[in-house]
């Protein structure tokens, strides 16, 4: 295109209307494209790693080191249950880091959409508790793992101490208590609820795959269903309902009880006599992670002592970094239902045993039917 | 007719001797011209609707197998639908809820549309904009707003408590079928008002005057003139509300509780945690077929009624 004095030539009558419109168009395209150029120049959010995680982990407190290095938080995408997350990623959703738990680990590895983590690239790896690394299916070989353990805890009952009258010892029977029909809540995901049902039905974790176990657990879940006001994967919904008194007891993780206590709501995280459900969750890197370096930064940030302190103090979860526990005395930890030795907690409860994909589909189909009233 | 088209076609064809083969084709054939104009829409329809629909149909005849699919064609999923009671029950509950929502929405919106069509003479546009005002916020936000209104410590319960009409909060307001019906009826109101308004607006006022002159009272006049003439609006409003609400899953997921779940929730779960995509596909196809059948019956019925009363 020749460079011409546009206005001058128009005044002189040299320029056709078409030529002038053309220049206007190019100017317009230029102006419209300016924001794109600027975006590229500064750190655009799409340059940050994407962390696909449970609700509640998308907060700056867990990414202090990451934020210091990159000046921004990672991008977050949230799921309500790890089955849903796996299905979404298998459907083509590419993230950098995701957050499964031990019961799903072998299946997540089998799906073939993850890469092994080179532990040499994580500055905090030396402090990670070895008993959490050696999970079934993790195939830890000293220099690489599938899953970098991050948090561990329990699924149990959070109940209002002022509204729920405990008969005898704390027990899973509390969530089957007919006196409080319509005022009990539950997590909707079979990954928690079904296993708690197994504990209630007295089925050992190692036998949960048998047909007999299916019948027994289905029976207790059917018995519980009319008593439940709502099944939800959104812990905030349960917390709000507990805080208003709409619910008097609900199946939750540690964090709900700790958060409500810090707000002054009289709740307690039960230690059921049958044992709570225990789990370890961690981080995996997608095989096509577009920002691999930053994916390692996300993991390193989550494994840092700063994050650990927050996890223990504010959420009441165990953390995988042994140094995080040095910040707390034994009494505080006991008050939170934790211990600096994870084995104390994990083995006191019922640790989930990984199952096959067929089992997961069968269990979820059946549990959905039960939740709908069949 | 055909000859004439051909002649005029060839006449215009000679008028543009410099046009290429495509230009000549366009000039000669009216059909080609029509299809050319339709191309963008047809391509979009094909790529965005027909191809995915085809995939869905094919997938509904597969079965899930671990992480993958067994691609031998079988009607297993459809047999499951009739064998296990949950599917039929959820489907009928869904149509029950959507039917209630449709009736409630049309009944509530008809007077509003009637008012704007017959009694507002200035600033009609302003009134219509006012009616669509709730639509300026996101759907999700409206659902959450209803959660606040209907909740245990919500607006209705606090009001009733403070007036002293009830002693404990009403629990059936939230996490129930009723909550889903109320929320959907509100969320889809504008989709009912606008078609109702258009059909009421079109009614020739002289017909109403004639009816009055011939001795009809207001009520008789409404049922003999206004209602039959506005039936097209009622039909389209009903379909516009009924069809999308049957597939809704956000509202029952957030407000429905265990008893308010709809088929959309189950379809979503088949593609999510249950991880049985073929079953989800089969359920979607069945839902579509049912909606088509119900819509057809509904249209026939209204046409029949219209013939009877006019």
Question: What does this entry show, briefly?
Answer:
Chain A has 374 residues and is of the alpha/beta class. Chain A has 15 helices and 14 strands. In chain A, the strands form 2 sheets. In chain A, strands 1, 2, 3, 4, 7, 8, 9, 10, 11, 12, 13 and 14 form a 12-stranded mixed beta sheet that branches.
What does this structure look like?
The complex is a heterodimer of chains A (374) and B (310). With 374 residues, chain A is of the alpha/beta class. Chain A has three domains: 6-41, no CATH class; 45-152 and 280-339, Periplasmic binding protein-like II (D-Maltodextrin-Binding Protein, domain 2); 154-278 and 354-371, Periplasmic binding protein-like II (D-Maltodextrin-Binding Protein, domain 2), CATH 3.40.190. Chain A is 41% helix and 17% strand. Chain A contains 15 helices and 14 strands. Chain A has helices spanning 6-12, 17-41, 64-70, 82-90, 105-110, 130-133, 190-201, 211-224, 235-244, 254-262, 292-303, 305-315, 330-335, 342-348, 357-371, and strands at 50-54, 75-79, 97-98, 114-115, 117-118, 144-145, 148-160, 184-187, 228-232, 249-253, 267-269, 277-286, 318-319, 350-351. In chain A, helix 7 (190-201) packs across helix 8 and helix 9 (235-244) crosses helix 10 (254-262). The model of chain A is unreliable at 38-42 (pLDDT under 50). Chain B has 310 residues and is mostly helical. Chain B has two domains: 2-59, no CATH class; 77-309, MetI-like (MetI-like fold), CATH 1.10.3720.10. Helices cover 75% and strands 2% of the residues of chain B. Chain B contains 15 helices and two strands. Chain B has a two-stranded antiparallel ribbon with strand order 1-2. In chain B, a hairpin with a 2-residue loop joins strand 1 and strand 2 (68-70).
Descriptive labels:
heterodimer, A: 374 residues, alpha/beta, D-Maltodextrin-Binding Protein, domain 2, 15 helices, B: 310 residues, mainly alpha, two-stranded antiparallel sheet, 2 strands, globular, disordered N terminus
